[in-house]
Amino acid sequence: ETGVTQTPRHLVMGMTNKKSLKCEQHLGHNAMYWYKQSAKKPLELMFVYSLEERVENNSVPSRFSPECPNSSHLFLHLHTLQPEDSALYLCASSSGGTSPLHFGNGTRLTVT
Amino acid sequence: RKEVEQDPGPFNVPEGATVAFNCTYSNSASQSFFWYRQDCRKEPKLLMSVYSSGNEDGRFTAQLNRASQYISLLIRDSKLSDSATYLCVVNPGGSYIPTFGRGTSLIVHP
Lengths: 112, 110
Known about the structure:
Largest interface: A-B, 22 and 21 residues
Shape of chain A: globular
Mean pLDDT of chain A: 92
Radius of gyration of chain B: 13 Å
Strand content of chain A: over 45%
Structural class of chain A: mainly beta
Structural class of chain B: mainly beta
Order of helices and strands of chain A: EEEEEEEEEEE
Mean pLDDT of chain B: 94
Strand content of chain B: over 45%
Helix content of chain B: under 10%
Number of strands of chain A: 11
Oligomer: heterodimer
Largest sheet of chain B: 6 strands, mixed
Helix content of chain A: under 10%
Low-confidence stretches of chain B: none
Distance between the termini of chain B: 37 Å
Radius of gyration of chain A: 13 Å
Shape of chain B: globular
């Protein structure tokens, strides 16, 4: 298996639920990213893990919690989300520096 | 000035037309540049890297002008399947965090 794999592809959850998004990369990259893309809006960087260090966008609410147990796996833990959190959540990886990002297929999240 | 700026379009062109997009960036220390393609409700996919000497991949040509701080993408002989949003991406030096433009929408019609 190659590339960046995200699961689940679709997720519907209520505002009181707790769920997790999973991302796995098989490219030997050392940086992983979470992006959010709301309908007809640009990509919004949420979190970056590089060499097991975490960089985050300070505007991301605490109801989103990332976890990066190793350089190949990345999770986004979700709890008490709001309807405005409904969006496409994209995972990406890169070798860092001057290298491009490679994206997974995304998880389309709907919060009811 | 925004870090990476693109004309959002849409660019509405007939099949077979040649269309060009520009993207300007503000960080003169930027080291690498890319064009991505994003179809509706899908993930962005790397279209091509942009090299200082310019580079071509089939019908697509990318160029970099460091002096004026812009990159361009030229699409020749447009196909219906080229309809998408094209994202300009700039990597600053010494950072893992690239900057994405907001994208340029292209619609190719019969």
